[in-house]
Amino acid sequence: MGGDLGGGNAVIDRARSAATERRASAGTLRVARKRVVAEGVVELTLVSPDGARLPDWAPGAHIDLVVPADGADAGLVRQYSLCGDRWRPAEYRIMVQREADGRGGSVAIHDRVAEGDALGFGGPRNHFRMAPAAEYLFVAGGIGITPLLPMIDQARRLQQPWRLLYLGRSARRLAGLAELAELGGAEDRVAVHAADELGRADLDAWRPADPAVRVFACGPNRLLDAVEAWGAPPGGLAPRVERFTAQVSAGASPSAFEVVAAHSGATATVDAGESVVDALRRVGVDVITSCAQGVCGTCETGVLAGDPDHRDSLLDDAERARGDCMFPCVSRSRAARLVLDL
Amino acid sequence: MTASTATIGPRTEVPRLDIDPFSDAFLADPFPFHERLREAAPVTYLEPYGVYAVARYAEVHRALTDWQGLQSAAGVGLSNFRKEPPWRPPSVLLEADPPRHDAPRSVLVKLLSPRRLRALEAGWRADAARVVDEMLARGRDFDAVTDLAEVFPLRVFPDAIGLGDSGREHLLPYGDFAFNAFGPRNRLVEEGQAGIGPTMAWIDAQCRRENLAPGGIGQQIWEAADRGEITAEQAPFVVRSLLTAGVDTTVTGIASVLHALADRPEDWRRLRADRSLLPRVFEEAVRLESPVQTFFRTTTQPVELAGVEIPADEKVLMFLGAANRDWRRWHDPHAFDLHRDPSGHVGFGMGLHQCVGQHLARLEAVSVLDALLDRVTALETTGPARRHLNNTLRGFEALPMRLTAA
Lengths: 342, 406
Ligand code: FES
Description:
Chain A: Its cofactor is FAD. Chain A: This is PDR/VanB family oxidoreductase. By secondary structure, chain A is α/β, with parallel strands linked by helices. Chain A is about 20% helix and about 30% strand. In chain A, the strands form four sheets. In chain A, strands 1, 2, 3, 4, 5, 6 and 7 form a seven-stranded antiparallel sheet that branches. In chain A, strands 10-9-8-11-12 form a five-stranded parallel sheet, sandwiched between helices. In chain A, strands 14-13-19-15-17 form a five-stranded mixed sheet. The relative contact order of chain A is 0.14. In chain B, a hairpin with a 2-residue loop joins β7 (about 305) and β8. Chain B has helices spanning about 25-30, 30-40, 55-65, 100-110, 115-135, 145-150, 150-160, 170-180, 185-195, 195-205, 215-225, 235-245, 250-260, 265-275, 280-290, 320-325, 360-375; strands at about 15, 45, 50-55, 70, 140-145, 295-300, 305, 310, 315-320, 375-380, 385-390, 395-400, 400-405. FE2/S2 (inorganic) cluster (FES) binds near residues 297, 327 and 329 of chain A.
């Protein structure tokens, strides 16, 4: 399936390299591999620049990726579900479908990101956790397959029965069919419904009556609305869905910003290549850290002024929106100045 | 070593040491043994139990974080659950790996996050003030273990979980036994075994939904099961994990920081003037004392560690306490130093299994210290510290002290 992208991208590569190189250190991922996995879908394999372990994740998790914006310095923040194998701790994998009328993130990844590039990242965070169940029904619409792939792998590892309904306009545009065939094994677990061959799917025929079956779905809103309308079967739980985020994040951190420790007034400039904690240490302000990856919560610090660029795995969207605390081992600033309760 | 030997096995020599990390001599004074373990090689082999051991910071950190290669589900004590049955149904957290570990862990991470615990903070600070006032009313001489370090967690923790009033005296012996049980069946385990039946029955009963008070953390765990985040079968074990790991550890943590701060009038004065140092003081005490000294992992496959290939299905003993005093990582490692940045210590572990109650432990310790600093101008020891021996925890039996009231 697919194959490496041809040389056509080389021209764009050179034009874009200066902007991405600047971020090639703290809080960045290097694109180790980029390949086409279906029509209009590329898969990126991302590794940390020094090859170290990346923060742990579980099925349903996504990362925030800072995607180079056309001509701008700050970049766009976009969320992508992780679809790789967490038994490979030094890499993440994402799949991106080209959305010509999208908000620019997918086009940037398709056209401007090349192997070797460094991209800022945050997370992983998980708003779509796979919960234990006796049996699973997964419903994917197009690229919505991405968070479901690791879930399916997990169901298989736990030897729990599962089925997948995978809907799309045409089979050529559906990623992961080969892997799914393998995961499904001899049993008939995967139903692919391509509209160009089969017409509209009779979705409600899939509605489980058995309360032991839990539904996890991801895809376009119209599909998810229909799945959610199934509600909870008697004695069971309602379907869990993940919607492609409609929320447009503001630009990411400027390449350098100023951090102020309010109690002492100590001020440091945080360069693109260092963390807020490191910068504060240089001016004699210690923030105690443990994981230094935004996962343990040890370094939680109050924000008195500024606009944090959250990169942790801990805060949910509402907590992020409040902007009153952050994890300076990984998180940064969207504005030129950040004042912390230190 | 000759380069021509084509044998499978360690590429680097693994020194075989005749050290018993669960002997009374080791537990009473681990430091000379730690020194030998650390300096012999990055990976050693302990003859008495046939296990691999790591005692340097880098290797301990690696072993803690590499859950893919070094699993927990075969037990984090000496016993290999793949070969012998565990003494109780395994923990769904501590003794589990992904994917089974995911759901219980994420429920507790949420319930024990600093943002959630803030709801308890005012109450805990008031309780700490009361506990210290009661102690002051009894006079200047006190035992930092039995009069304070044990009193405060037992005052606030069972209420936070939502336990009933009767039977709380089982909590300390249960934790003591559970942490002993990670070691071999030595004298400490045998002695604990005698009275453990009723204690285990009480613990199991507390984990049931009907015995947990509304609003408490225990009941919230059951509510997570209602929402389908964990199963109803997992819920009591998630509650049990708090009862196992939530008391003896925090008692030891509080005792450790008081032990470290006694007879240090300079530090005490500085702290009285600048409470923003409190989090650092506690972390430094946890680094230096490492209340939890050891845990095991089991290799899932041949694992390379510092050039050594450890075969699959081998037990690896991680000396957290030794790593926290490794000169390769820490300057002047045996000193309690308020100027040090203790970031990155492995006293709470690291990675996927890092102590999920660490924020709770911190809040307890800081509440007690703050209350003491408000009321006490000096803290001095009046006799030698007496250690409480446990196969895993480095705790105290007694810490006789005298204070000067403000
Ligand atoms: S040190 Fe773990 S979240 Fe920052």
